[in-house]
Write a structure and sequence with these properties.
The protein is mainly β. It has one domain. 0% of the residues lie in helices and 58% in strands.
């Protein structure tokens, strides 16, 4: 994933409601990484060198959906 890419996470907030969160690659050279385990879903914005800029963590049983949206490719005409 690259700049402009983002990930949406839909999380059960209890009481029959859900909350939506977005984590995106905000600058050139950054990407969004997704890690999952039995207990957590972790989404991080990472630099080219592998340094984590920010991270969002969610309890896996509460996560309803994780959707990746790639940036729109621009083709020179």
């Amino acid at each position: 994933m690259a700049k402009g890419d983002y990930v949406e996470v839909l999380v059960d907030a209890g009481g029959g409601t859900a909350r939506e969160y977005r984590v995106g690659a905000t600058r050139a050279g950054r990407r969004v990484d997704i890690r999952t385990s039995r207990t957590t879903v972790e989404i991080s914005e990472v630099t080219r060198n592998g340094k984590i800029v920010r991270t969002a963590r969610f309890l896996a049983p509460r996560v309803l959906a994780v959707v990746e949206f790639p940036a729109q490719e621009r083709h020179p005409e």
